[in-house]
Amino acid sequence: MTNTTSSVPLLELKHVSTIVNAHTPSATKILNDLNLTIYPGDFITVLGANGAGKSTLFNVIGGNLAADEGDVLLHGDSVKQETEEQRTRFLARVFQDPKLGTAPRMSVAENLLLASHRGQRRGLHLRGLRSHMAEFKTMAASMQNNLENRLNTATGNLSGGQRQALSFLMAVESKPELLLLDEHTAALDPKTSQQLMTTTNDRIAQDHLTCLMITHRLEDALTYGNRLIVLSDGKVTYDVRGEEKKQLTKEKLFGFFDEL
Amino acid sequence: MSLITSAIGQGLLWAILGLGLFLTFRILDFPDMTVEGTFPLGAATAVALITKGMNPLLATGCAFLAGMLAGLITGLLYTKGKIPILLAGILMMTAAYSINLRIMGRANLSLLGKATLFKNNFLDSLPQYFDGVFVGMIVIIIITVLLVFFLNTDLGQAFIATGDNPTMARSIGIKTDRMTIMGLMISNGMIAMGGALVAQNNGYADVNMGIGIIVIALASIIIGEVAFGELSLSQRLVAVTLGSILYRFVLLIVLQLNFSANDLNLLSAIILALCLLLPRFRKFLHFDRLIERSVRNDQHN
Ligand SMILES: Nc1ncnc2c1ncn2[C@@H]1O[C@H](COP(=O)(O)OP(=O)(O)O)[C@@H](O)[C@H]1O
Ligand SMILES: [Mg+2]
After folding, report:
1. Touching check for A118 and chain B: CB below 8 Å?
2. Whether A156 contacts A94, CB under 8 Å
3. Which of A62, A121, B11, B45 is spaced 20 to 30 Å from A11 by Cα?
4. What is the pTM of this model?
5. Which of 172-211 (A) contact B at CB < 8 A?
6. Is the CB of A55 under 6 A from ligand 1?
């Protein structure tokens, strides 16, 4: 694996707080003065108890939720004012729920074609689906779950595992600068989940993608990636990388992470 | 025979409404009540302009633009104003009623003695009711070809994805608000144009001519689906037109049973309700496979 991280940050979160129910007695900070610097080539596994704010962190990076305080910088420039749609030029996401990631009544190939234009203007040009079919077949075959034989099937008729594999392909096919995976294997049975995790890791290594992956499986968090962070109460409370991460064991992690 | 010709002509002209509504009801996946206001809006706009001496083709084009404007307003209320789509449509439909009265200056405006798209030497030489068939056929062919082209472009695919899964659409950078507004504009433009053509064919515009038209437009969509089953998206567009013609035949038969024209809305509602209930009967009879409402395009391009 060649996860060579450089020293110029790709994305920085600086003193980010998000407040829900502001101006009411039940006002709470989900993210509380959170700081995180992501370098190109980082593959960061994200751990944290339920409700720690992991998905909220992704929503702030993705522009689905505004940072009420602090700033989000891409290559040093603030992207805080950019909408979710605008941020797709550098960012791709895979959600936990297989239903969220694909258009159910469109075919697998049509979904792949849609995602190949991630973040671009879409005009009145014929879509040219046929000229992409060979490419899509190869791409789908890389997922090793028979997806390549279902290119003309409506996505709604796929198995959960195939659907999630498609969501993953759609996220990585245009090689985004930053990939966010939010428990993307959690809804699948153990075998399918393991297989998607392996292909995920291969693809990230092969394309040198920068990735944040939320997981609730300690083994996966330890096995994959060059860096591991733990979130609790809306803050990054633990952050290890490189050799130090390799030395980490499940037992040691429990010390930081006794909720699980 | 002339009754059948008339039914085909009416079916073709009203199919424009079915196709317009298809964009919102089937692709964007919501019911747009605006159409009950835009249909008479198109009729009023075209008839008022023709009586002022405008070329009928140009007047029909203006009706299209008026419909797009109504769709734009509904779209802005819905996407930017966060008003639920049903309410946004009802607001625009209600407003359109007064606007239509303003445009015509009265409740009913005749085209007697004026030029229309249905009056020229060639059409006059055809047997009775063939003018409707001829004009309807040309308009439907043009619209269907344009829609099939549009839905097969990158923009059209983004539009379809918006209706199919807005969360996913946004996550790959599709501006779903814009797609929704665009869909409402095209849809209402088409429906207003349908109103302009129906008014010219009938020889008048009436401020109440929009009542119940959403049911008629839906009927052509649903009848097409019930009659032809699983189809690709392009084929489904054609099925809407055939469904619209079938609907006219059903009406023709029912009207033979001594119902009056006043019963039309009741009959339309009953026909539509029966078609909507049909899949349930089929299920009951163990024909379990429901009609798959595909938005997949043909795979050949
Ligand atoms: N829109 C919201 N309004 C109120 N509370 C919210 C909202 N979104 C998330 N929360 C709360 O914020 C906390 C963090 O949520 P989340 O980021 O989804 O946690 P995680 O993904 O780590 O399980 C939870 O306690 C959740 O209930
Ligand atoms: Mg979560």
Report:
1. yes
2. no
3. A121
4. 0.93
5. none
6. yes
B231 touches chain A (CB under 8 A): no
Using alpha carbons, list the distances in angstroms from residue A147 to A113, A127, A143, B27, B234. 15, 21, 7, 26, 25
Half-sphere exposure of A108 (CA within 13 A, CB side): 25
Q: Tell me: the pLDDT tens digits for A109-165?
A: 999 999 999 999 999 999 999 999 999 999 999 999 999 999 999 999 999 999 999
| Residue found under tokens 């292909």 | A199
All structural domains of chain B with their residue ranges: 2-268
d(CA A72, CA A66) in angstroms, rounded, equals: 10
Instruction: Check if B230 contacts A (Cβ < 8 Å).
Output: no
- The ligand 1 atom at the shortest distance from the C-alpha of residue A57 is 17
The CATH number of the structural domain formed by B2-268 is: 1.10.3470
Q: Which helix (H) or strand (E) holds A186?
A: none
CB contact under 8 A, B153 and A120: no
Q: Which residue has the tokens 């009848």?
A: B223
Of B169, B176, B296, the CB nearest to A105: B296
Digit-coded pLDDT (tens) for B139-149: 999 999 999 99
Contacts of B107 (CB under 8 A, 6+ apart): B101, B206, B207, B208
In the predicted model, what is the mean pLDDT of residues A7-14? 93
Mean pLDDT lowest among A88-92, B182-186, B245-249, B277-281 = B277-281
Rounded to whole angstroms, the Cα distance separating A153 from A171 reads 19
- Per-residue pLDDT tens over the stretch B65-97: 999 999 999 999 999 999 999 999 999 999 999
Contact at CB, B158 and A122, closer than 8 angstroms: yes
Interface test with B, best of A85, A120, A150 (most B CBs within 10 A): A85
Q: Do A103 and B158 touch (CB under 8 A)?
A: no
Average pLDDT on A1-16 reads 78
Name which of A5-14, A83-92, B210-219 the model is least confident about. A5-14
Place of tokens 């920068």: A210
Task: In whole angstroms, give the CA distance from residue B5 to residue A127.
Answer: 39
